[in-house]
Design a protein that fits this description.
By secondary structure, the chain is mainly β. It is 4% helix and 41% strand. The radius of gyration is 20 Å and the shape is globular.
């Protein structure tokens, strides 16, 4: 007991008593039934994002150090796919999200977001695309289509998630590089959602097109560190979520030209427990309140609406990973409103980095660890 108290004082108890990184497959309780967890792949190094290929060809998984892998649905793991750009793999930086072109069956284009080094000591988020050749295990003709400018990150708050909407526009959810005030600066791309054509060109109907001193890529602003985004399959609206500081993780439904508050409006405080210097309150005139907010930060990452037929009890639910909270968060929706929250998989003590619905109707999650895993979830009756 004395030893434990000393270790706690020194901040070492958590290090020496951490659970094993490998998640155990098995059955776990939930409000709606029994959650069956199966390991599809292990040995992934800090996996970050995933995208399912059509025709049951498997899925692409990113690893933060800079690798892109192909996983087949029987658990086979490829060698790293070639043609991936060099990434800034420091702290929170590296290879991040992956998404397929809406016309993938014809153009075979794969989109990647990643941290990119600048000329000096700082980095920023970039997005590029290349043509996938499964025969060659290669992304061919990779081209950068977007760069977050200026580059201001020394390793933190890159975001980012990639979502195509029903009209084929590409939304990129970005972090503010841990430079708070830049989220309000319309001449910078930190803390923004941007909207692009698939080739990176700027749509003429973006809200700030033609305004002097304003980046025309911007769709919405006042965001902190966005690590989740998904298209609502019933409304077609983009939903995003972002990390607060100490408290104040939030979900937003970003609208064109709107200000979502950070750092002027926040439900959190600094990691030192002191107020955010720029903060004027939880709700500030001229900014949009969060659609949903957590008083205590679960450190959210990844987002998926469930519209499958395989598990009717999940239909209409929103699933979000939790890193510090070490859980899969299930949100019941009534229309757009969150009416109930459940924390799943807490028994696994695993950082959930991403969650997606597979074309087979199962849920798939990535665990963020040096020995990260791809898990498949199904719901069985009690």
């Amino acid at each position: 007991m004395l030893r434990t108290r000393i270790l706690a004082i020194l901040g070492l108890a958590g290090v020496l008593m951490m659970p094993p990184t490998a998640v155990q497959a098995g059955e776990y309780p939930s409000e709606q039934g029994v959650l069956q967890v199966s390991q599809l792949v292990a040995g992934l190094e800090h996996p970050w994002g995933m995208a399912f290929l059509p025709d049951r060809q498997g899925l692409l998984v990113t690893e933060r150090p800079g690798r892109l892998r192909l996983v087949d649905l029987q658990g086979g793991l490829s060698e790293p796919i070639g043609g991936v750009p060099a990434v800034y793999a420091r702290s929170q930086g590296g290879l991040l999200d992956v998404a397929l072109s809406p016309e993938f069956a014809q153009d075979r284009l794969v989109y990647l977001s990643y941290a990119e080094a600048g000329d000096g000591e700082y980095a920023g988020t970039a997005v590029g695309r290349g043509r996938l050749s499964l025969d060659k295990r290669q992304l061919e003709d990779f081209q950068v289509i977007f760069r977050q400018l200026p580059k201001l990150s020394s390793g933190a708050h890159f975001g980012s998630r990639l979502v195509f909407d029903r009209d084929g526009y590409l939304f990129v959810a970005l972090g503010e590089n841990n430079q708070r005030s830049t989220a309000q600066d319309l001449d910078k791309l930190q803390g923004k959602v941007v909207r692009l054509h698939p080739d990176g060109k700027i749509p003429r109907d973006n809200p700030f097109v033609g305004q002097p001193g304003v980046r025309a890529e911007i769709w919405s602003y006042g965001h902190r560190n966005q690590q989740g985004a998904a298209l609502n399959p019933w409304t077609g609206q983009l939903w995003t979520h972002e990390h607060g500081p100490r408290g104040g993780d939030e979900i937003n439904i970003p609208q064109a030209g709107k200000n979502y508050g950070w750092p002027l409006a926040t439900h959190g405080v600094n990691y030192s427990f002191l107020p955010i210097p720029e903060a004027q309150g939880k709700v500030v005139a001229g900014t949009e309140p969060p659609h949903y907010v957590w008083k205590k930060s679960p450190a959210i990452s990844g987002m998926a609406f469930y519209d499958g037929e395989r598990f009717p009890a999940w239909r209409g639910n929103l699933f979000i990973g939790a890193l510090a909270g070490q859980a899969l968060i299930r949100l019941e929706l009534r229309g757009d409103q969150v009416v109930h929250e459940e924390r799943l998989l807490k028994q696994l003590h695993a950082r959930i980095r991403d969650v997606r619905q597979g074309p087979d109707g199962y849920l798939y999650v990535l665990t963020d660890a040096a020995n990260g895993q791809l898990l498949r979830l199904e719901l069985r009756p009690k």
